[in-house]
Design a protein that fits this description.
The complex is a heterodimer of chains A (234) and B (422).
Chain A (H helix, E strand, L loop, with lengths): L7 H34 L2 H32 L3 H34 L6 H27 L7 H26 L4 H33 L14 E4 L1
Helix pairs in contact in A: 1-2, 1-3, 1-4, 2-3, 3-6, 4-5, 4-6, 5-6
Chain B lengths: L8 H12 L1 H18 L3 H29 L14 H7 L4 E5 L4 E4 L1 H7 L8 H4 L3 H11 L6 E7 L5 E9 L6 E8 L1 H36 L6 H33 L8 E3 H19 L2 E5 L6 E3 L2 H18 L5 E7 L7 E9 L21 H6 L6 H11 L3 E7 L3 E9 L2
Parallel strand pairs in B: 7-9
Antiparallel strand pairs in B: 1-2, 1-5, 3-4, 4-5, 6-8, 9-10, 10-12, 11-12
Classes of the chains: A mainly alpha (234), B alpha+beta (422).
């Protein structure tokens, strides 16, 4: 964005894209955060709000797509600008998916709120959501500041999210085996956990896009695992 | 200075006034010269006229200057704010501050903002960094010149909860520049949060030991009233339970205290040698009790990091204590300090390794959750509260350090604290 274009209108168009991405990022983060809050506190009203918020996100994604297509057709951008625009399209579609997953969690609040659930079930889910939200925030901050210095950690954290998801999966399975009456609620929670894990994957996608926008290269491949130990970085 | 002695005050003031009024004077002198050339005035008259202009310029504006100084209450001496570059003033403001243009692109941020939110490039859209829907509304209100005041609350939940109140004002008239000032509200919010969290956690976790103490009291007053042997046994259990409650309250309080602290990266240099020595000394008693020897592997040169000794001691005490308790069967706990000079990116790291049974894979990612226990019975027998690693994680987050947990089934576990490079 700092590169100087002779055409001021072009800058305006690029700024419009960045502005919409900012809006989508803030909205998606807020939706996931509130969906988890609604889930833990069995707050049906908050859950309904989250479901309604998804509309704005879909609309913003259409805006980004339309504008990007117009810019490409009219300006025929090259190199940096082209990466920037294609990046915006990709990031917006990832964010839209994050919003959908948040909405899906919120929808489950209604069916879960009938019976009181033990608090331990939610602690793990909250911790998982915390990791995914940190991940999402860091990649969006990296997009804002155009710094890829910390982006390498994103992969590590994604592994942690996966490991945590597996652990939660086992825990929920034990609850189901203990008492078949738990099966309905635990299945909902299992889907919530899976959704959060998917949010982490979308954050990793965004990280790769940001890396490509800033450097023009692909993000370096994963390091091989050093030994057979079980390892988690927190 | 060309003068030998101190310059008289009037001369300095006169010279300063002259310098300020130089364009007026130059114009006047040029006009007089022009008139002289056109109208053929006598040279003495011209000289007199020019002299009069100079004197008037030197004395005249001095009075206006005096008015200006007394008018601006904040301005010390005669210089006012103009004498200082705006950047110095902005840098001296302790609250984060950002200057943005009409589109929201950052023109300038002060050091406090960099410390709080990381680096910004000029031209970055500020709404990309502060993305909440409220901030976007606030920003468009500010840009469109909606009615004052322009205030919004901004909250960050991860990695550390922080709250800011952001106030926005336009700069001057028609500059299309705006200044945003961030006021940190985290402390007051955290006090509220701490109260409710503490009550929730304490009431939940204290209920079990309290119920058991109440049960034993009932038994002692009823069926076991005259049974001396049972009384001793029950009193022992009650003592253990009250001790557990005391530990729980200690841990909850220390966690709450940590959460209270404002978000400030630690700034004092601490030698990790001393920290580890103190931890190993403090833990030697416990290690001897459970039959574990603590072995240090430490380079000779001091290894300094930015931090606070008490917090670092708490981190490593918790890690070494866990290693002694849960890796008891291995008979050895290794504390390894690595100065981390090899790679440019890596800072120093400390590893606490035990040789016990290791940690089952599915539990590793969740160890730092509050009250998460692999096995409630073992934990209780080892006098654990379920908060030790939560405290460790909390401290390390503030240090921007990372905790890596490795486990080899049957061969033990290793907890590595990786500090950032300075």
């Amino acid at each position: 964005m700092t590169s100087d274009h002779i055409m001021n209108a072009y800058d305006q168009e690029l700024k419009f894209l960045a502005n919409r991405i900012a809006f989508m990022g803030g909205h998606a983060e807020r939706m996931v955060d509130q969906a988890i809050q609604a889930l833990v506190a069995a707050n049906v009203d908050l859950a309904r709000k989250v479901v309604a918020d998804d509309m704005a996100l879909d609309e913003a994604q259409r805006d980004v797509d339309d504008k990007a297509v117009i810019i490409i057709a009219r300006r025929q951008p090259m190199a940096d600008d082209l990466r920037e625009i294609i990046g915006a399209i990709r990031i917006s579609s990832d964010l839209e998916r994050v919003g959908d997953l948040g909405k899906n969690i919120a929808k489950r609040v209604v069916s879960l709120s009938d019976a009181a659930q033990p608090i331990q079930l939610f602690r793990g889910l909250e911790a998982l959501a915390q990791l995914a939200l940190t991940q999402l925030k860091e990649v969006l901050d990296a997009y804002a500041t155009r710094s890829v210095a910390r982006i390498g950690q994103v992969r590590d954290r994604d592994d942690d999210i996966d490991a945590m998801y597996t652990s939660l999966f086992r825990e929920l399975l034990t609850y189901m085996m203990e008492d078949p009456r738990n099966i309905a609620s635990c299945t909902h929670l299992l889907f919530c956990a899976k959704n959060i894990e998917r949010i982490g994957d979308h954050a990793t996608n965004i990280a790769e896009t940001v890396y490509h926008i800033v450097t023009g290269d692909l993000m370096p491949a994963e390091r091989p695992k050093e030994d057979k130990s079980h390892k988690v970085v927190i | 200075m060309a003068f030998d002695g101190p310059t008289p005050g009037w001369a300095r003031r006169g010279a300063a006034s002259l310098a300020r009024a130089k364009w007026l004077v130059a114009t006047a002198l040029a006009a007089i010269a022009g008139l002289a050339w056109l109208g053929g005035l006598d040279w003495p008259v011209i000289g007199l006229a020019m002299g009069a202009v100079l004197v008037a310029a030197a004395v005249g504006p001095g009075e206006r200057e005096a008015e200006r100084v007394s008018g601006g209450a904040a301005a010390p001496a005669s210089t006012g704010l103009r004498a200082y570059p705006a950047e110095y003033i902005a840098a001296a403001i302790p609250d984060p501050m950002a200057m943005i243009d009409q589109a929201g692109a950052i023109v300038y941020v002060n050091d406090a903002a960099r410390a709080a939110f990381g680096d910004f490039r000029a031209g970055t859209l500020i709404q990309l960094r502060f993305r909440t829907p409220e901030f976007q509304t606030f920003l468009s209100g500010l840009r469109d010149g909606a009615a004052e005041p322009h205030v919004t609350d901004y909250a960050e939940r991860v990695p550390i909860e922080r709250w800011f109140r952001i106030v926005g004002r336009p700069i001057g008239h028609g500059t299309n520049l705006f200044v945003l000032v961030f006021k940190d509200q985290s402390e007051t919010r955290r006090i509220d949060r701490m109260r409710s969290d503490f009550i929730a956690n304490a009431s939940h976790e204290l209920r079990t030991p309290l119920a058991s103490v109440a049960g034993f009291i009932e038994t002692l007053r009823g069926p076991a009233r005259n049974d001396a042997k049972a009384r001793d046994h029950f009193l022992q259990i009650m003592q253990d339970q009250t001790a557990r409650m005391a530990r729980l309250i200690d841990d909850l309080l220390s966690l709450s205290r940590l959460e209270m602290k404002t978000y400030a990266a630690p700034s004092k240099a601490v030698d990790l040698h001393q920290v580890i020595d103190r931890v190993v000394n403090a833990m030697s008693q416990l290690a001897a009790e459970v039959g574990v020897t603590i072995v240090k592997q430490i380079p000779t040169a001091p290894v300094e990091i930015l931090g606070q000794p008490d917090e670092l001691i708490q981190v490593f005490e918790n890690l070494v204590e866990n290693a002694c308790k849960y890796g008891q069967s291995g008979g050895k706990v290794l504390v390894l300090l690595d100065a981390g000079k090899g790679e440019a990116a890596a800072g120093p790291s400390v590893t606490v390794r035990d040789f016990g049974p290791g940690i089952p894979e599915e539990h590793i990612p969740r160890l730092t959750e509050r009250f998460y226990r692999i096995d409630a019975e073992t934990s209780r027998a080892q006098k654990g509260t379920g908060l030790g690693l939560a405290i460790v994680k909390h401290i390390l987050t503030r240090y921007d350090a990372r905790l890596t947990i490795r486990s080899w089934p049957g061969e033990g576990a290793a907890f590595t604290v990786q500090f950032p490079a300075r």
